Amino acid sequence: MDIPPRVPPRVLTVAGSDSGGGAGIQADLKTMLALGVHGMSVLTAVTAQNSLGVQGAWELPVDAVRAQYRSVVDDIGVQAVKTGMLASASLVETVAELLADLDAPVVVDPVGVSKHGDPLLAASALDSVREKLLPVATVATPNLDEVGRLTGVVVEDETGMRRAAEAVLGFGPRWALIKGGHLAGDAVDLLTDGAEEHWLRAPRYDNRHTHGTGCTLASAVASGLAKGMGVPEAVRAAKEYVTGAIAAGFPLGGGIGPVDHAWRWR
């Protein structure tokens, strides 16, 4: 008996490459595989990167980014898109223009710096993120450092997370997921659309190997949306997945190792 092939949901990541394999395009595709969707990629930049930091970064031409996007979307199609490192104002504006015509949910991870503090987004691109990219987002997923750069809101507690979410929503995304992992205590995130709030809490593990956490979470959210989940359900599933990946993070090289995208299989 012939069994017709199952076509999995398709998710596109528009992001930079991490040569060390812990974050960026590599983390996105690993996450998508682990969560049962077909991952595709538009490469925006190449980094020389390892467990110690980013030694170099080179953005791709706008025409190359646009061509990759059209190649995938026009032929294969997508059920969700996740954006990560976009590097410059010209790339942010190009990607935002492309996504504006897309009939699929978009998860925007407004990557500003690497885990080691290396800049991955030009300061001159912040206005483009605020004015062009965030308005096309279904969910924006900034951490507290990114919130500060985008809004000027300094978050020191959960009340500050509410202020941050309000400020981010003011730029136009439908939902804001404020990641409070840099606060003391449990790892707490706030998801809100301005009308309803969802607080997501998880234990904080004594594990320094957390490289790729933000990319992994955003890709997991996009994977859930591609499967037809609502935003709160997709975010809760993503939080559960990334919490397990952080707990199982492992050492590589002489610095900060990656989260374990395959933790459910080990």
TrEMBL record:
Pathway: Cofactor biosynthesis; thiamine diphosphate biosynthesis; 4-amino-2-methyl-5-diphosphomethylpyrimidine from 5-amino-1-(5-phospho-D-ribosyl)imidazole: step 3/3. InterPro entries: HMP/HMP-P_kinase_dom (IPR004399), PM/HMP-P_kinase-1 (IPR013749), Ribokinase-like (IPR029056). Residues 18-260 form the Pyridoxamine kinase/Phosphomethylpyrimidine kinase domain. It catalyses: 4-amino-2-methyl-5-(phosphooxymethyl)pyrimidine + ATP = 4-amino-2-methyl-5-(diphosphooxymethyl)pyrimidine + ADP; 4-amino-5-hydroxymethyl-2-methylpyrimidine + ATP = 4-amino-2-methyl-5-(phosphooxymethyl)pyrimidine + ADP + H(+). GO terms for molecular function: hydroxymethylpyrimidine kinase activity; phosphomethylpyrimidine kinase activity. Keywords: Kinase, Thiamine biosynthesis, Transferase. Its EC number is 2.7.1.49, 2.7.4.7. It is an enzyme of class 2 (transferase). It comes from the Bacteria. CDD domains: HMPP_kinase. Catalyzes the phosphorylation of hydroxymethylpyrimidine phosphate (HMP-P) to HMP-PP, and of HMP to HMP-P. This is Bifunctional hydroxymethylpyrimidine kinase/phosphomethylpyrimidine kinase. The lineage of its organism: Bacteria, Bacillati, Actinomycetota, Actinomycetes, Kitasatosporales.
